[in-house]
Amino acid sequence: MLEALTNKEKWNEYWRSLKFSLYCMTHPIDGYWDLTHEKRGTMAAANTILFLTVLIRLLKLRFTSFIFIQVYWEELNIFLYIASILFPLALWVVGNWGLTTLFDGKGRLGQVYMATCYALVPYPLIQFPLMIFSNFVTVDEAEFYAVLSAISLIYAACLILFAMGQIHEFSFGKTLLFTVFSLFAMLVMVFILMLFFSMISQGVAYFISLGKELLFRM
After folding, report:
1. Domain boundaries, the chain
2. Which of 32, 35, 158, 160 could form a disulfide with 119 if both were Cys (CB 3.0 to 4.6 A apart)?
């Protein structure tokens, strides 16, 4: 473990792969092809980008001006808030990989995850300075903040499209189609999970009531 942490070559590879995310951001077609096919991306860099994205989301709650975000801290569960970010990401990765695998998609599960994380780069890069900027603008300038915030989301969504097209080797039309199908698959998985947990909770409730009835009769 200590050897891995002090391995200079590993750290250099990590920083190169993290820096490569900026190239993917500005050259998405070539960048996402090289990311997976030329193995210029790493899971460590992908996890770092995801961590920074989640961190910025949390920092925005605390440091964004109340003009733009109103947070009721007594009602906020940080763990559920983080889960609300990671859970849709997991559904997207599994749903996209599962569907594309059935239709000759070339991307593996890890590649879908890595490319999706790399596509999130615009969010922390734009939202961090925007978070600071929010404390120096007035209500009249709120539209400027809203436009830049929307750009960070739209930019990331466009990069995800390019990323999926390159790693699965799909045309743009096919990529767009499978993106819609993947979103639908996410809804199906949510429904199945809700149904599963509902059945589990009903089963648990039944056995609890049965146990209480037995105790009462004894």
Report:
1. 2-217
2. 160
